[in-house]
Amino acid sequence: MKKLSIIAMLMTVIGMLLWQPQLASADELTGHSHEQGLRYLISKDALVKDAKGSYRPNDNVTRGEFASYLAKAMNLETTSDIVFKDVPDTYVHAKDIKLAASAGIITGYGDGSFKPNAVISRQHMAVMLERAIDYLNIPKGTSSITFKDNAAIFKDYRQAVAIGAQLEIIKGSDGYFMPENNATIGQSSSFIVRLMQLAGDPDASGNSNGGNTNGGDTNGGNSNGGDTNTGSSKYAIKEISNGALVGNQGFSTFEAAEKAVTKNTQVIVQSDKIVKMSSGYVVTNNYVALKSETINDAVAVAANTEMEYLSSDATQVKVRLAGQVGYLKHADVTLIPFSMSKGRSYYSNENGEIKHTLYDYNTNKYSSSYIFGKAPSFMKPGEKYYSWNGIYFTNGNGSSNGEAYNYYQFLPARAQTQYTAQELDAYIMNKLTEIESTGVSLYKDATKKSKLIGLGQTLKDVEAKSQINALLVLSLAQHESAYGMSDHAQNLNNLFGLYVYDTNPLNKKFDSVADNINELVDKFLQPNYITPGGSPGKNFSNGAVVGSKALGFNVKYASDPFWGAKIAGHYYRAEKALGFKDANNPYTIGLTTTTGLNVRTGAATSFNPLFTYARSGMPVIITSSATNGWYEVLSDKLYTGKAFVSKDYIQVVNTVK
User: Fold this and answer.
1) Dihedral angle sign, alpha carbons of residues 170, 172, 177, 178
2) CA distance 622 to 330
3) How many other CB atoms sit within 10 Å of the CB of residue 651?
4) Among residues of the chain, what percentage have pLDDT more than 70?
5) What homologous superfamily does CATH list for 235-340?
6) Where are the domains of the chain?
7) Mean pLDDT calculated for residue range 336-341
8) Do domains 235-340 and 421-582 have the same CATH topology?
9) Could you tell me whether strands 655-656 and 650-652 are parallel, antiparallel, or unpaired per DSSP bridges?
């Protein structure tokens, strides 16, 4: 009997050994560190088995394969007549490569080739991904993220890498990006699934293991940072006492803890992270794309941004950013009760000017400040004021508050500055002299080298031709090009970092700065940000002002919620230096109060509409008093005739200037 038992055991072990390889070959992706991404590509028919029946997850990915993955994941359908000499129609990925090229995601090499069978480096992949981000209209901002081996990243690829890292599409390992390393099929699948998660593809939000470490890259797009209830997670109720959390009443579920809260001073925590509170504010831990229910669109939000806390549950937090209401994952934000705040960004009246002082939640210190206009009359010197939207301000206890629209921040782009080309040139030179005197190395010889020198006439020509404020364009150029001293301005006549190419990313060289400005106006501002409705498929038109996250270019142009105010600051400083000609003879600004408002060619509903404002709160310039119940306004659509809008749907606002 003993011998029979031993024989039986041996047979069982042998059977198990024989069975294991069969299990592995039946599903080689189970438990793979990039399983989620790999299965996503399979679901899109982008990844198929080779002749040996393998998906080859650990093989290096080629340029042709990666282009094909992107084309299929993004459901690209439109093709043009782009042809690469080394991609014949018989090539396995020929159709997808053509689709990706037609979408502007790939451009190939200067000799007309694409090199589809060449393996792709991680930094080169980042360039393609950034172009896909633009195609999908995923909000992004200018990122300062760097890696320990940043110097090893080809200089003109660094922004693409930083954008991908900021969006958590790509990551490194131990602070290194390893730009020259080739990416595997598994890694590339994780990059793409994260991209499509940001794009809102429901097929990309699976719950498998995808995207843990492999080759130094981790998945930042699917983790809840421990905030999901796995069954073993515990919640606790703690009480705020003298700015600290005390007590530890435990609960097995969020719902049970929520029912047990009896005081406003109590919060619910999970792993020492506050997940619910009665009142306070929310700070973003990293770049996020807030899906705004208010405008039904994604809004880019930079790290370290303060937002109103509305509510939360076990998985997400409801927030409001400058009126935009949406939801974010707990892993993306930190909840801060007012009574536990160590510091907040604030506004103040400094010698009659409004100053915004920013707080850095990483260091718990005030980090920087800027002035962007005159202080509203209700702001008392020596007091701190807070605002969720840069329009309504309160000193915290309600004893001093009010509404204020900064003139330069909410001045529509169709306004015409009263300064001449000569005055603009004089201001530019005075400003360059000022920054050169700071001794900052970037500004060395600015008065001789800056690409802003002599731009006055070009700016006034653009204003006359395109009906876009010359001083506004100059303010954008100053902000985006470090006063014309950035590398792209100096080397490429590119004040705005326009365009990215496979072989020359961010290196489109313009023949002149004038060409670069015209490109910005004709290809970006005019069709997408100023003209109501924007270009087909590009929902960027939220008001023809630099604005804020509430309205204007800033809603979609930059993740920095104060980008619009900072541009306004450049305009204000120019005005201050030149004598406030624009402020002393200001335009009257109004806001629309309803959706679907028509702007017409005449002062009656019988006249044809020029265009329609899809959303309310759109700023308009009123050029004459109301006649028969209609205001004459400047058209946001490029148009030389008169435009009219019903007075009943316009609220005139008082601007601070």
Assistant:
1) negative
2) 44
3) 11
4) 89
5) SH3 Domains (2.30.30.40)
6) 1-28, 31-204, 235-340, 346-403, 421-582, 588-656
7) 96
8) no
9) unpaired
